[in-house]
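Course assignment 3, question 2. Fill in each field.
Student: A.L.
Task: Predict the tertiary structure for the chain below.
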Amino acid sequence: RVLDFGCGKGELSRQLADQGHNVVAYDPDPGLAKRLDVLASPSLKTATTFEQALTEGPFDLVVCRRVICLLDHAGTLDVAAQLRLAVKREGRVLVAVCHPGFAPWIATSEARPNAASSAHPDTSFRWIKRHRKSGRQLFEFHRPERVLRNMLQRAGFELIRRVERTTVDQFRFESTRDLLIFECRPADPPDCTLLIKACAMEADTVRAHVQRLVRHLSLSRPFHEVILALDTKEDAFLRQYTAGNLALLR
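Answer field:
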């Protein structure tokens, strides 16, 4: 039993159904409803709302291909929670995204960025790509891989495998990767909070320190939440080594 979450025109759904799987093709875009209805068969059902799709679940396999690339932070969190609801406890979820290490900077036979981004791969930003076949322009959200992993883990998934699809960068004619796939299984969501305390003397360094602590302490499993507690004292610190700047710290 397979849920194709955000199935688009349903090509993958049809292929899976043709292989003998029971498939639900779900996409919230009402403009696709008629195209999906044409694909309907005894082994392929269609849904235009998540609630409708969920009536056929839970599923052994949930496939979410290039959906969260198009969503902002809040939308991605919503989808991650829905994926967790849709899969069986012993099931699997495949989440495929435009490769965060390469996609905004390469041109492939499938698509190319409108302009190569000058942003650093370890930051989050919005970029635009154009499909070669249809000419459509899409606005996509780039997130570092560590951010994507954290989102999935906080939604209640354990990452058990990652797969990269290889292609050729037509800007440089070099081998590269354009798609990253996470294979996940349901797990208990994190229930531990990380509390970090900072004072006004750390105003110039607090960002780097907090990011380092969170990154390294979250390698095996993320925290339910991270709380940064600010000491409001502005002077006369014990073992004071520099002037404090509470306004900058905040």
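Instructor remarks: Helices lie at 11-18, 33-39, 50-54, 73-86, 145-154, 206-217, 246-249. The longest strand covers residues 157-169.
Grade: pending
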